[in-house]
Amino acid sequence: MVSASSEPTPYVPATVAQSVKILVVGAFGVGKTTLIGSVSEIPPLRTEETMTVASVGVDSLAGLDAKSTTTVAMDFGRITVSEEVVLYLFGTPGQRRFWDLWEGLADGAVGALVLVDSRRLEDSFEVFDQLELRTGMPFAVAINEFPGAPRYATGQLREALDLLPDTPIVTCDARSRESCAAALSTLVDHAIRFPLPAKASV
Amino acid sequence: MADPDFHDHVADHADHFADHPVRSYVITSGRARPSRNTIRPETLLRVDPEVPVPVSASRRTRELLALCRGVLSLAEAAAYLKLPVSLVVVIASDLVDSGHLSIRSGPPRHALPDRDLLEKVLNGLRKL
């Protein structure tokens, strides 16, 4: 995934003076890295952090300590959107036990694109809790249309996910550059039209 | 559990990533926190070629300075160095303090990016 050291480093154009970020969040295997890879101008890169996390819910195993050390991988990509501005897309695990990881990521973000698998809607509930309770970030929902997955009307999804009327819901194919760019555009447009007050305390 | 986004086993990655707690602390001279809090994963960095690399610079410091000959975000530098972002923030903060690295992008905003910036992002995305 990381390019071989013999290849030249793909630097950000020297004209760029500002960077912004969007978080791409969602449950395991929902296609975050696929989406990032579809729109990124560089092959997706990976960083890893060691975290001490509470083992809760389905991830707990009998006999293990309540806390354990976990390596969290974060894949990200880059889009130079103008001569002066570069956009980073950070793929972020949505599970409650990784919320601490969001601390440095959510700060100053344009918003979050929540990628959802319509076969496993309930997997995304924790992500919405996090966005609404802890970050106050604008977000939009992108349903990654896996082949054979059930197709729901937007209204049904809004109700099932308990989303506000203003929250955009779009469908996308995480493998398609155009589709992912359109989903990201929906989020940015939403962030422009519905500016939220900054989180009070960080 | 075979999820491409996520790995739950430190051991699987021990050979690839130097993020064992002990080694990380050695690299940062025992510090867990950076000297400044203005560096984020998306912060753009570039080396100041006028400032010579200090003779006492560690291998990681030299590698970071060599990598940042062009403009790169902190996250990209961390990925290429195969080091955790939190660790590279500590190294980069020192290098910004000493004048070796300059922060190319403005200080991160706690508030949302301003409307003008968002419009630029939206226009760029619509051209993709």
Please give a structural write-up.
The complex is a heterodimer of chains A (202) and B (128). Chain A is of the alpha/beta class and 202 residues long. Chain A has a single domain, classed as Rossmann fold, CATH 3.40.50.300. Chain A is built from five helices and seven strands. Chain A has helices at 32-39, 103-106, 125-135, 154-160, 177-193, and strands at 18-26, 45-54, 67-80, 85-93, 111-117, 139-144, 169-172. A seven-stranded mixed beta sheet of chain A has the order 2-3-4-1-5-6-7, with helices on both faces. In chain A, β3 (67-80) and β4 form a beta hairpin. In chain A, 43% of the residues are buried. Chain B has 128 residues and is mainly alpha-helical. Chain B has one domain. Chain B is 41% helix and 7% strand. Chain B has six helices and three strands; from the N terminus they run ααβαβααβα. Chain B has a three-stranded antiparallel beta sheet with strand order 2-1-3. In chain B, α4 packs across α5 (85-97). The longest helix of chain B has 13 residues, at 85-97. Chain B is elongated and about 45 Å long. The interface between A and B is large, with 67 and 56 residues.
